[in-house]
Structure formats: C-alpha cells, structure tokens
Amino acid sequence: MKVPFRKSVRARLILLVFLVAVPAFLLQAVGGWIDLQQNISTRKQDAGQLVVRAQGNFDTLLNTSRSVFTELVRQNEMRSPENCASVFNALHLAYEHLAPDAVNVGLSDANGNIYCAVNPVLGSKNIADQPHFLRAIR
Questions:
Q1: Measured on CA atoms in the order 91, 96, 99, 101, is the torsion positive or negative?
Q2: Could you read off the pLDDT of 25-63 as tens digits, one per residue?
Q3: Which candidate among 22, 111, 114, 124 keeps its CA 20 to 30 Å from the CA of 7?
Q4: pLDDT value at 22 more than 80
C-alpha cells in the first residue's frame, strides 16, 4: 500500500526543514535590513556633523583671511600701484598661509584695475564689473 506523499516521512522532513530554514532566513534578512537602515542613519548624522564642522572651519578661515587682507590693504604701501614689488612678498606670504586654495590674490585700485597679483592675471586686468569687487567697494 502506497502512503500519500503528505503523510510520508520525506514530506515531514521537508516540512521540518522549511519550518527551521524559512524563519532563520527571514530573521537574517530583517536583521540585515535593520542594520543597514541604522548604518545609513549613522552615516547621515556623521555627514551632517562633518558639514557643520567644515562650514565652521571655512567661516573661521574666511574671517581670518578677511581680517589679515584688510590689515594688509590698510597699509599705505599696498595702495599704490607703483609699490607692487615692495608689497609682493607680504601679499604672497598671506596668500600661501591663508588662501592656498584660491586661484589668485591681487590688489586693484578703486576703478577695478589690477596692479599687483600673486599669480599672473589671464584675460582682463579690470574687475570693476565682477560681483566680488562690487561687494568689496560697498
């Protein structure tokens, strides 16, 4: 007499394997998903903190650079186009220490004519129409 498959030992063993394996697999999958979500959340928080620190460091560097360059420009030697050779070392030193990522640092007169620059100026030597110059002369 043939035993129906669902009542056989083989069917019971397969059912037992499924009853053990499926919950274990689901537990692993759900645990992995939860860990992934926690890691993503942690990385987002870390990135946010890094951005805040970088912004703070950038603001500090910007304020320091602004104050040093403001003091340099207040010196009478810096204001004269004829004195570029004598002020170049101070300008270059400030550029190297405070603004190494800048493309160039230079001096211009009130009309926007660049008369001294750390790196050679390519293109127009007048910046009167540039937004950063217009902000600076206000």
A1: positive
A2: 999 999 999 999 999 999 999 888 888 777 777 777 767
A3: 22
A4: yes
Cα 118 to chain centroid distance, Å, stands at 25
- Among 123, 120, 96, 124, which residue's Cα sits nearest to residue 106? 120
Rg (CA), the chain: 34
Please report, to the nearest 10 degrees, the dihedral formed by the alpha carbons of residues 96, 97, 99, 102 taken in order: 20
Predicted pLDDT of residue 127? 87
Give the number of C-alpha atoms closer than 13 A to the C-alpha of residue 18, restricted to the C-beta side: 6
DSSP bridge pairs for 107: 116
Q: What is the C-alpha separation between 81 and 108, in angstroms, rounded?
A: 8
